[in-house]
Structure formats: structure tokens, C-alpha cells
Amino acid sequence: MREVPLERWEQREAGVITALPFVLLGACVAVTLAVTPTELEGPVEAVVALSVVTAAWMLWWTVLHPSWRERSGLMRAYFVGLVALMAALVVMAPWYGFFTFTGYFAVILLPPRWRPFGVLSVAVVTGTSQYGGPPAGDAESILVYALVIAINVSVAGLIMFFAHVSHANHERRACLVQELTDVNARLEASLRENEALQDELVQRAREDGVAAERQRMAREIHDTLAQGLAGIITQLEAAEQARDEPARRRHLDAARALARDSLAEARRSVHAMRPEALEAARLPEALAGEAARWSELHGVRADVTTTGEARPLRPEIEVTLLRAAQEALANVAKHAVAGRVGLTLSYMDDAVTLDVRDDGVGFHVNGHAEGDGDGGYGLLGMRQRVGLLDGTMAVESEPGGGTAICVSVPA
Known about the structure:
The chain has 411 residues and is α+β, with helices and mostly antiparallel strands. Among the domains are: 3-134, no CATH class; 280-411, Heat Shock Protein 90 (2-Layer Sandwich). It is 68% helix and 9% strand. The chain is built from 12 helices and 5 strands. The chain has a 5-stranded mixed beta sheet with strand order 1-2-3-5-4, with helices on one face. Strand 1, helix 11 (315-336) and strand 2 form a beta-alpha-beta unit.
């Protein structure tokens, strides 16, 4: 908040330091013109002319060519010439000591190792003006002159030291301000980048959510409507082929029951509810009920065995295992031509497995597509369900040797 006022103050200070030597030099010229010529060590014209030369010297080197301030070699030449002009003016008119004081401003333009010599040079010139000119040859005059020089050097040295400390503090402050400005700029850039990333993550999350919901609905439709419709078609075809009314009636009733069950399961799937079989029973009983209904519907024996100590599992685990059993039984009905199916549910310490084996015709696993053979979701949907729980699914089969599907999920 204070950075702008500080810069304005520095600009005013630089302007004052630039103008002050010219103002004091002009004041000294005015005094020169006002006094009697007998008080000068030379002609008035010479003093005024030398003052004009000095003003032109400062104007040329520092005002008209400000970039030269950064060139140490040129500044050394400028300072030597300025001190020589000041010394000549002081010898001709001692009151030019008021002007020679501004020589300390020029010392700052020198390289650091040259500044002590610069301070001493200006102090000698200023002390000469204060003493009234060069000292006489006696020891007392020389001692007093040296004392005046020493006082000037001490005062100027202290002033230059504090000026150097102040300048160094200002440089450090400027560096800190610049660093803070850079940090703020980087933080703002990071915030903008984070906002963009956040928007991208929200968009991706939305897209992933839509994709996940589509996959869930695809699995549920396959596990409910598709399998139910397949069973209904099977029963209706059997009813058409039935020779007597009781058999036809039995197949029609089975198709009607399948339609009701499929509709109920579809509604539950839309609302992401657990299958009805798991609402009123645990997983082993639900598997036994599914196997019994499937066996009665297709006329194939299906046995369910549970090993280990049955215990409640997370709902998503039980749903996945139940859907896997339903998919495996549906595939047996469509493809296996089996006479017997065995389902084994095994509870272990860190996993639960479901094995479904049949004695059907089998198939070549390596050349088998992940679908169900009729363009459906099939084994692919089962594998996706299991994968969502970090589980595994293995299929073993040989032509004429039956098929075994093993699903294992962490418990």
C-alpha cells in the first residue's frame, strides 16, 4: 500500500539532489558579484567564468547524459574534474565552500572502493574554504588546517556511512517488495490454474458420474430385463409347443411370474435398491432361492453349498455375488445344455468366493467373446461388477468338459 508514495518521495529527492548544486553555485555567483573585487583572489570575470564552466561540466555529465552515471570510468573522470574546479573556485573565493559541500553527492557516483578517496578530496576542498584558503607555512596553521580537514572527513564519513546503510536497507526493502510481488503473481497464477483445474475436475467428475450411471443401468438392465425377457420367451415358446393344456398353462404361468419379477427388479434397479431376494434373506438363502426358481423353470438340477461361517457382508458385495450367480445360471440355460449345476459360496477370512460349475458342453475360453453370444452384456458385465470391488473373475471351460466360473471379492 505504501509503495507508490515511496517512489514519489524518491523522485522528489533525486530532483532536489540534482538541482541543489546548481542552486548553491548560483548563490555563490550572486555573492561574487555583490562583494568588492578586493575580497577575491582573482578577477570577478574569471570567477564567474569558472562558475559557468563548472555548471556546464555538471550539466553535461549528469543531466544531459544520465546513462553515464552507470559507467564507473566516466564517473571517475567527472569527479576528478569537478573536484579540480571546486578547488579553483575555493582558492579564488572562499565562500564557494557552500557549493563544495554538494561534492559529497558526486561521491555516491563513484565505485565503492573509490568513495573514501572521494570523501577525503571533497573534505580537503571544503576544509580549505572553511579555513579561508590554503594554510600558511607555520606549524600552527598547518595543525589547525589539518584539524579542520579531519573534522570534515569525520562528519562526511558518518553521513556517507549512514547514507550507505539507508541505501542498503532501501535496496533490501525493494528486493523484498519485488519478491513479494513475484510471489503474489505466482500465487494468482496458481489460483487461476487451480480454478481451471477445479472446473475441469468437476466436469470430469460429472462425465464420470454419467458414465458410471450408464454402466450401472446397463448391468441392471441385463441382469433384470434381459434375463427376464429371455426366460419369458423361452416359456412362451415352450407353451406353443406343449401338447396338452396343463403343460401349456404351466409355461404361461411361469412366463407371467417372470414378467412380474422382472418388472419389480427393474423398478428396484432404477432406484438403486437391493434385489428383492436380499431384502428378506441373507446371501446363502438368496442364492438357494434363486437356484431353486431357476431349476424349477429350466428343469435342471441346481445345488447350493455354503462353506465357512456365513456372515453379513457389505450390500454391494452381496449384490455383486447374487448378480454373478444369476448371470452364470442364465448362461447355463442358454448355452450349456447341462444336466446339473453346482453353486459353492465360500466365506474366508479376507475374501468371499462364488464357484458355479456345470456339466454342459463347454467352449473354448480363449476364443470366446466377453458377451453372452447374442449381443448382450454377458461375462463382460459380470467382470465389470467384480472389478469395481477390486475382485477377480476366472472362467475355465473345455468343449465337452463343462464350465466353471469363479468370482472372488475382498470381504
